[in-house]
Write a structure and sequence with these properties.
alpha+beta; 20% strand; disordered C terminus
């Protein structure tokens, strides 16, 4: 469950481990889990899943009394691998929405859309390589980057290879060609395969198309032990929030939660957490954060593109131009 210190940093926009505070975290005993989700404009939130027959009236979450917009609760009966969604009731009670966990660690295989309660246990074997990673990115070090989309890079009888099969095939292939770095097109979960991963719906969940989170860990582990550095592309569009009423008059046109909707602090905060979660290098992290800062700075332009008047935009200025934004700007430099 979120601590008071976590919530303080969260509200400040500087928390760098959202994945440890929000989402589904299974109990050590293996039965039960703690849930937390940011839904500041909801009037009620519950969790439904395999353990309660998908009944939204059984496991209700409670809003924290500190006004953070976080709903939380400890639920019995939840087990590893079980699917779940949040039932979100809008502020005026007019809509009930069933949503996957924006900070979920694993999802059902598309086209199914639920999140899965999942442990992230894994015994890494790349300690030696990690300790020398800086030298691999030095100015004097050779760099030859191989970019790949895992789903189309190689298949077997028309079917996807899993992360473990890809690890061995790619490491052998690239070593023969002399590449030093591997840059993957987005591997986070996405509903439409044709997007190649750029329509992400969960930044903390590697796509189930190629296996489990542990299978992806093995992929990274294996590449590291063969001398390759990995990176991921396209990490900035979604902030982990269920802010259900950001632009009331433009709801139909804003079909994904992009940075302009959640606000600069939430977006920067989400990226800091994603960077920590996927162990992205400091250099790449700074590049990503600068991209986000430029995008968030253009929120008025985005609003005009959607047909909003200057008067409408002025109504949102406080959310995007308040003093706390300085924290986000500092983080992006």
């Amino acid at each position: 469950m979120p601590s008071d210190q976590d919530v303080y940093l969260f509200r400040e926009g500087t928390l760098a481990n959202l994945h440890r505070m929000l989402g589904c975290h299974l109990a050590e005993s293996g039965l039960g889990a703690a849930f937390a989700v940011w839904a500041p404009n909801a009037s009620a939130v519950s969790v439904m899943g395999d353990w309660n027959g998908w009944n939204p009236d059984v496991n209700h979450l409670s809003p924290r009394p500190d006004g953070s917009g976080i709903w939380e609760g400890a639920l019995d009966g939840v087990q590893h691998g079980q699917a779940y969604k949040y039932r979100i009731v809008t502020r005026d009670g007019s809509h009930k929405l069933d949503k996957a966990d924006p900070v979920g660690f694993f999802c059902e295989l598309p086209p199914a859309t639920a999140s899965r309660a999942w442990r992230l246990d894994y015994e890494w074997g790349d300690g030696t390589w990690m300790s020398s990673r800086g030298a691999h990115n030095g100015l004097e070090a050779p760099m030859a980057i191989y970019e790949a989309h895992l789903g189309s890079w190689r298949r077997k009888d028309g079917e996807f290879l899993n992360y473990r099969e890809l690890a061995h095939a790619m490491a052998d292939y690239l070593k023969d060609l002399g590449f030093t770095h591997v840059e993957l097109m987005p591997i986070t979960e996405h509903p439409f395969y044709g997007s190649w991963g750029y329509q992400t719906t969960g930044y903390f969940a590697p796509t189930a198309r190629y296996g489990t989170p542990q299978d992806l860990m093995y992929f990274v582990d294996h590449l590291h032990n063969h001398g390759f550095l990995h990176q991921d592309r396209g990490l900035w569009r979604l902030a982990p929030a269920f802010d259900l009423n950001p632009f009331p008059d433009r709801a139909r046109e804003l079909k994904t939660w992009i940075s302009e909707e959640a606000g600069p602090e939430a977006t920067i905060e989400a990226l800091l957490s994603i960077i920590a979660y996927f162990r992205i290098t400091t250099k790449r992290a700074k590049e990503i954060l600068r991209e986000v800062e430029r995008a968030v700075s253009g929120w008025r332009k985005q609003g005009r593109t959607l047909g909003m008047t200057e008067r409408e935009l002025d109504g949102f200025a406080e959310a995007f131009e308040h003093p706390e934004r300085k924290a986000a700007q500092r983080a992006a430099r």
